[in-house]
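Hey L., structure's done. Input below.
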Amino acid sequence: MAKAMSDKKPKNMAYTTKRLLSYMGRHKFSLLSVGVLVAINVISNILGTYMVRPVVNTLAEGSLEGLINGVITTAIIYLIGVIASLLYTRIMSKAAQDVVYDIRKDLFCHMQTLPLSFFDKRQSGDIMSYYTNDVDTISDALNNSFAAVIRNGIQIVGTLLMLLLLNWRLSLIVFLSYFLMFAYVKRSAQKSKKYYSAMQKSIASLDGYIQEMTAGAKVVKVFNHEKENLEGFDLRNMQLQKEGTEAQSYAATMIPAVVSISFLTYAVVAIVGGFMVINGISDIGSLASYLVFVRQSAAPINQFTQQSNFLISSLAGAERLFELIDKKKEVDKGKVKLVKLDDKKWAWKKESGELIELKGDVRFNNVSFSYEKDHPVLKDLSLYAKPGQKIAFVGSTGAGKTTITNLINRFYDVDEGEILYDGINVKDISKKDLRHSLAMVLQDTHLFSASIMENIRYGNLDATDEEVTKAAKIANADSFIRRLPNGYDTQIVSDGANLSSGQRQLLAIARAAVADPPVLILDEATSNIDTRTEDLIEKGMDSLMENRTVFVIAHRLSTVRNANAIMVLENGKIVERGNHDDLIKQKGRYYKLYNGMFTLS
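Output:
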């Protein structure tokens, strides 16, 4: 229980506030203008309230001219305040959106630099919560609280000064009530602050769960898991309810407490002030003005307690955002660059200026790797792929097949050993240039909300329409694309929901084809395609794979028969290697898999 509570403790709010102020500092002219206009608005309100004194005294004296002048002066003062309020409201709205724009931009830019491991360990709904829930809380706080905090601060100080000027004796009573108000507000704010921080995390968890269950709605229906999903939702929803209740319960008591203290103070001041007027210690106009100030004195504190909810929630959201922005970027110390020699040839350029022709020679030398410490996935693995060879990996799920391709791309770096690409350690090659020399077709195809033409062109943004069409023909996607109502201009929706699984996979293969890389990685590239379509693809892929190094991961052993070398992996090690005929003759693991005596699981 103690540990659970420790997870809800707030982080360094002072540091978070400082970081948030640094973003606001980028728009200091606008915010300074807001501060000045707010000050004018508050001073106008204070002076307008003070004008009650001369107006009442003039009325008591029976001077009509003095009364008219006093009323006109009061109206002008309040008019100035209204104009200032209209101006700072508009400026603040623009400034708030500018600050949120900067935060959102920095967040997205930084997220592009994070390693793949960050995304592998998080739900997409949790990541989206940064951009929606957390950013929105900051936007709400800036729009609702920034000007209010300045206004309330000036109003508290100004009101206290006016109270002292009007009647310092009565002010002792008001100061005591202020002390009680602030003491209670401070205590309640401290209590609610830690629960607001925990509430932000619970919202992210709930958002992530909802997104995941929504995305997998078809699977949920197939296996009748609606009840279990509801139980999972209830668990997270109840946690959010509990933390939200704790946060709101402390915050909600602040306003009633302040109001109660202010009413009591007003009654006491009215009684004591009345005795002072009767005994000639104060005039009636001063008491009238004083009572208005006393009645108004609780207003800024009430407003401050209301805004404290926004402020605490926004700081909790900002804390999450800044924690993400502070995460370490993907490390890339590679200095070797990829340069183009002519239309067909590329070369690696070292810092010394030496050029090494890009051929696609890939070698693993005694490579060991683990995603988590003490849980190795690859163990002292060595293999090679000569330029133009097709290397296939087969084995059970978790054997390390996909991990090999992740290491070639440097989505992750090896723990021990080395990977050589044309004789160069991949750690010495710039990640951007390394990945530019590779194309990858994944089992889980992702398509963007754009036309089919643009989705294929994603593999090479400089590709012409003719090159895109050629790539589609290589992948045997051209025929089905042309049968669509708008052909290549057909818009993709919801990650390709308007296409079949096979069609989505064909587009992914066409995207790899238009990239025209020297090395291809096909990770279950034909898993979502029927046997007939697979035959068509393999014919098209033969020309695509010509003079290229190709790594193939496949569960369908029929797709790897023509590979130059087949690697059978188990528990992170290569247990058999050779071409199809050699492995069949050995009558080992591959032979049993191919003949259905074992299954890939």
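The chain has 21 helices and 13 strands. Residues 1-10 have pLDDT under 50 and may be disordered.

-- N.
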